[in-house]
Known about the structure:
Distance between the termini: 40 Å
Number of strands: 11
Structural class: mainly beta
Shape: globular
Oligomer: single chain
Order of helices and strands: EEEEEEEEEHEE
Strand content: over 45%
Number of helices: 1
Amino acid sequence: DVQLVESGGGLVQTGGSLTLSCAYSGFSRTDYAIAWFRQVPGKERERISCISNLDGKTYYTGSMEGRATISSDNAKNTAYLRMNTLKPDDTAVYYCAATFGSWYVVNCWSPEVDMDYWGKGTLVTVSS
């Protein structure tokens, strides 16, 4: 079974940085992308970034563009999201997700692409 497990969330002060990890397992196909989302209770889920395993391209959307960096270590089956200059508005549950298939992978940044598998999320709290 495909599994994604996020870690690295916690409490950080305004202006600080945090790196989230997403350990993925349960599949051997190479046409996949890993994406990061976040959600505040009562608000819509926001797509932050995604990385294509096909060509290593990275994409950023939303309010964290310019403050987030996505990367992956295929040897460890782990993706990362480095977030800088954090603000209280960044407080949310952060999720990683996976999508498969070449068209979906190269368009992983698009709101038209639904993810196939999700992790359970990790909470990030930014104190003022």
